[in-house]
Specification:
By secondary structure, the chain is α+β, with helices and mostly antiparallel strands.
Length: about 600
């Protein structure tokens, strides 16, 4: 009996079908991946009356959808060929909150296609939430005019400008505010820097931090992320909404953060705690999580970033010691010439004054160093006493640090690459400060080579006056019959007398970063009494060099032929000096004449 078997042609047919199905599946994979990227709606297809929707987060990490309707297109609104789509937001939540600070960047879809990023709001105290949308092609592929670095926006500049031009106040389209989230910063500390930060067009909000998670880098459109400015024991971060993610590239905000241009700043994930509804300015309260990459661009139509490893930051270690207590804090600050000086001052002030060891009414002695790549360290030392105004006692320390960093980062020689900052503040009870009331010489004349004894009467803040004594030596080469000048003064006045305009940053100055550091390290301290002996011979200041006793006939003949403005001539030369440490700031100036016999 014959039994039926599989026909060979049927087996081959099955194999062909299997192979066909396999290759068909492979061909479908790119389509599946492409389907994850939304289709783009060109601006030319946007018409009034179109219905759409957008995504944002109101609470937690839940991305929510709200509706909107196109009101029209404002051509050339931001600038030449920079148009804006005007929309009205709809739905119970957005009609309750209005346009919320931190909502900028929310992806906007029309007819199911990605059309742009929410970026502007219309007016304040408005009855309807009307917003502007940056077209998506400008977000993903900004034109050259949107790439150039722009001036930093001014807080309230748009409304003030339009009001002065005759437009009703509060009726202008303005950028949706980007919350600047301060964690670990007290409002009293921020108030001292209000005038400096109010020009950045940001909304200062208090928030917190969240523990980093491996899921932080899994961004999708509608999530929240932003720039890291300060992190550590206190943090400052921006927060706005992600418009799109293409591979490892992230597009967010839909407008500039600070118009910084091409940058290298850490990017971090943000989690919304809640959305605060306000008729004046609704905002999101957020916790900032771990760093997830690098912000690479801050331009007119978007902030752009790249997922991955964040750039290095500047470590700042601050130690405060008072009596038998000591508190150590650690921060990390971005390295950017426009922002770092302010952030160093603000972070130092907050870390000092919002410290359980700190107390007002004490004298603060600051020491430390700024370590630079490939250059000597900048040495920091000064003493600060309480003053009678309501300014916190620690504020001068912040201004000192901000001033040093401004000089380092504004130098015209090379970028200052800071490896780290170490600061120590010793708090001594009481107010220790001294005023120079008078000074005199033990003998009003001296011979060349002799030592002159100088006494000064100092009046402390409280207590009996005290007499301090020191000596200076008369140079051997001074002419008999000449008159020398002694300056009994504080460190700043002696700096100015011996360095002229160069000390104030005017006229001649250093020729390189090493020379600038040398000048900073040679500046005299404010807690010492100084006696400077000047001889009537010109001093040639050339860059960072001091060339005393230059003959007048040779001043115009200098090897190297320095450029205009790089040379300064003082009518006197500092021949010798002495100092007495007093443990508190000294102020005052007394000039004495010494006759050479």
């Amino acid at each position: 009996m014959l039994t039926a078997g599989a026909h060979p042609s049927n087996g081959w047919l099955a194999c062909w079908f299997a192979l066909f199905a396999f290759f068909a599946e492979l061909c479908l994979i790119p389509s599946t991946l492409n389907a994850q990227q939304p289709e783009i709606l060109p601006l030319s297809q946007v018409k009034p009356g179109m219905q759409g929707y957008a995504y944002t987060i109101f609470t937690g990490d839940k991305i929510e959808k709200f509706d909107l309707e196109v009101l029209g297109v404002l051509a050339n609104f931001l600038g030449p060929k920079q148009s804006i789509i005007l929309v009205q937001l709809k739905g119970p939540k957005v009609e309750h909150t209005g346009v919320v600070a931190g909502m900028s960047g929310s992806p906007v879809y029309l007819e199911g296609k990605l059309a742009g990023a929410l970026s502007l709001k219309l007016g304040i105290f408005t009855k309807e939430p009307i917003a502007g949308v940056t077209p998506i092609q400008d977000v993903l592929h900004p034109p050259p005019s949107a790439i150039a670095e722009l001036p930093m926006p001014q807080f309230g500049a748009a409304s003030e400008t339009f009001a002065s031009a005759g437009f009703p106040s509060g009726s202008a389209l303005e950028l949706i505010e980007t919350p600047l989230v301060f964690s670990g910063f007290a409002p009293a500390a921020l108030q001292q820097f209000a005038k400096q930060i109010q020009g950045y067009g940001l909304v200062a909000t208090q928030g917190g931090t969240a523990a980093p998670s491996p899921q932080d880098a899994h961004l999708v459109a509608g999530d929240m992320a932003g720039m890291v400015l300060v992190q550590g024991d206190a943090s400052i971060n921006s927060a706005c909404t992600v418009t799109a993610v293409e591979g490892d590239r992230v597009f967010l905000c839909g407008h500039p953060f600070l118009s910084l241009g091409d940058v290298q700043l850490p990017m971090a994930r943000s989690h919304v705690v809640t959305t605060l509804s306000s008729d004046l300015a609704s905002t999101k309260i957020v916790n900032v999580a771990g760093s997830i990459g690098t912000i690479t661009g801050d331009h007119l139509t978007a902030v752009t970033g790249k997922l991955g490893r964040p750039p290095a930051m500047i470590p700042l270690d601050l130690s405060l010691r008072a009596l038998n207590s000591e508190k150590n804090l650690h921060f990390e600050i971005i390295n950017h010439p426009k922002l770092t000086p302010l952030l160093v001052g603000l972070t130092t002030f907050n870390g000092l004054t919002q410290n359980p060891v700190y107390g007002e009414g004490t004298t603060l002695h600051l020491t430390g160093e700024i370590r630079l790549q490939g250059h000597p360290a900048v040495e920091i030392e000064n003493t600060f006493a309480p003053i009678d105004s309501l300014t916190p006692d620690g504020f001068p320390i912040a201004l000192t640090m901000q001033g040093v960093f401004t000089r380092l980062f504004s130098n015209t020689f090379e970028p200052a690459k800071v490896d780290g900052i170490s600061l120590r503040v010793d708090s001594v009870p009481g107010r220790k400060s001294f005023t120079i009331e008078s000074a005199w010489l033990e003998n009003g004349e001296a011979a060349p080579g002799e030592t002159v004894r100088v006494r000064a009467l100092l009046r402390p803040y409280r207590g009996a006056p005290q007499i301090q004594e020191t000596t200076v030596r008369v140079p051997d080469q001074v002419s008999r019959g000449s008159t020398l000048r002694l300056l009994v003064t504080d460190g700043e006045m002696l700096n100015r007398a011996s360095r002229g305009f160069a000390f104030a940053g005017v006229g001649g100055g250093p020729a390189g970063l090493d020379q600038l550091i040398s000048l900073l390290n040679r500046e005299r301290r404010n807690d010492r009494l100084y006696v400077g002996l000047f001889v009537p011979a010109p001093t040639l200041l050339w860059d960072d060099k001091e060339l005393p006793n230059i003959p007048l006939s040779q001043i115009g003949i200098v090897d190297g032929r320095p450029g205009p403005g790089s040379v300064q001539v003082l009518r006197e030369s500092l021949a010798n000096e002495a100092s007495i440490p007093l443990g508190g700031p000294v102020s005052g100036i007394i000039s004495l004449n010494l006759q050479i016999r």
